[in-house]
Amino acid sequence: MINVVRSEWIKVRTVAMHWVLALIAIAFPLVITILTALFNGDSADFDTRSLLEVLGGTSVVAVLLLGVLAAATVTSDFGFNTIRPTFAATPRRLRVMGAKVFVMVTYALVSQAIVMFLGVVIGGAVARGKGATIDLGSYGPAVPIIAGTIVLAGLMALIGLGVGMLLRSTPLAVTLLILWPLLIESLIGGLLTLITKSGHVLRWLPFRAGFQLAGAGGNDGDIGSPSRLTGGIYFGVVSLAVALLGAWVVNRRDA
Amino acid sequence: MISVIDLTKRFGAKVAVDHLTFDVRPGVVTGFLGPNGSGKSTTMRCMLGLDLPDGGSTSFQGRRYRDLAQPLHEVGALLDAGYVHPGRSARNHLRWLAASNGIARGRVDEVLELVGLTTVAAGRLRSYSLGMRQRLGLAAVLLGDPQTVILDEPANGLDPEGIRWIRDVLTHLAGQGRTVLVSSHQLSEMALIADDLVVIGQGRLIEQSTVTEFVHRYAERWVRVQSPGSSALGPLLEAEGATVTHLGPTELEARDIECARVGELAAQQGAVLHELSPQTGSLEDAFLKATSGAQEYRSASWGGGQ
After folding, report:
1. Closest residue in A to B66 (Cα–Cα)
2. Number of helices and strands (H, E) in chain B?
């Protein structure tokens, strides 16, 4: 199995587009967080919570890109037919899919951990320089937000891989992974709210629930949102189900 | 040794491979022939488990491909030189393949050297010609130093030097006792390198034999005669049941008669012979005759062809 993991890692890191996506995913939240700290750090209400909200909120966009990256590692294999030499070299397809999951989920976790670390350290230093008080220890949800955002990145990679395995097409997978959380869920949510006359169904829209991990879920007032833990577990189950379904389909179809 | 037993593959209502059974023995090059759409590539993908067969099985030295722990050490396959990521370098393409089967990085440079791509190994594959990709594909085949080699149209896109080179590689591999299965549309090339043939049409086995037996069975044979007395010899041959075609005042071709018998009749006639030679059609002729009923796609006649 370790050989297959090494092989998949080489495949990921030897394509420039993967690095471009990863760079954007890492740079975007960092740049926005640092710029926000730079321009708002001297504001009286800018504090640890503000910093983490900006970092977590922008990381939601970044983890979408990590999901896209994960999907692309699968769909490019199908698109360029490198899946055939891949399966010829490792006929046990589930091993290949398992290795892809291991590599991309680890990649997403590590890169998001780097983002959170740098965001807190650099963004915090910039904000402090502007006179803000940044103290992670004094803000209770700090660690859950940081850990939740990192976990969210891993789960996005997982669902991205699953979507990639199911669709096999980069344009389709990318479109779905971007539009589903940003547009389709809102449309479905609105429709369901109209039909059920209740907004409680919104909490069970997968991405909406998952984004609670980053502390960036919608604040729907009386409608409410799942807790960070509940939303995370729910999104994790959905992501795992999509990935398992994708692996099952890949195992059953011609390569 | 490759054993394909009762292999069947359907795509919807279309039967691409139809209860196909054949063996490929080690130590010789076996050509895998069939018209376009006859199921050669599908068969090869099924053999490697890439397409999931609806029935039948394939074994390599008695084991299913799926059961090979590190298949690149036992079976090297080149199904399509285009199965590469254009943004990756040749060296990195081979490195991920090598890593998947625990093959040392040093072996990557060795096979790049073997196929003559060392100087361009760092280049992106999008800049590679088809011939260069074929060489890369062959490098991938050789990575694990496998006992069995399967190649689908390996000479596609190669220049004459490349074609000769791949011919030498395949005969060398077979000479080492390896099992070599090669599909190709270049029948003249196949006639030079193949010892055995597996011929299929519409997914079914048409013939498995040696090249010599195949040509003997399907290709036309005739006797070519050059003699100043050919006009007198012709009727004698026809009287023996031969079909005679006069090509010129001193030249004829006789069918349905043995060469030796033509010589005897010429001697009885006292005819001087300038040439008496048995002629046999080419592998291409034999192939076209053998597969005439199994052509999936048939071209309109442009004249001059048979």
Report:
1. A91
2. 10, 13
Question: Which CATH class for the B2-217 domain?
Answer: alpha beta
B59 touches chain A (CB under 8 A): no
The domain of A115 spans 2-252
CATH class as words, domain B220-281? alpha beta
Give me the number of domains chain A comprises: 1
- ipTM of the complex, rounded to two decimals: 0.85
- CATH 3.40.50.300 spans which residues of chain B? 2-217
- A-facing residues of B in 78-97 (CB < 8 A) are 79-80, 82-89, 92, 95-97
In tens, the pLDDT along B131-184 reads 899 999 999 999 999 999 999 999 888 888 888 888 999 999 999 999 999 998
Instruction: Tell me which chain B residues have a C-beta less than 8 angstroms from the C-beta of A10.
Output: 92, 95-96, 99
pTM of the full predicted structure? 0.85
Torsion of CA A238, A240, A241, A242, to 10 degrees: 90
CA dihedral B207, B213, B214, B219 (to 10 degrees): -140
CB contact under 8 A, A15 and B88: yes
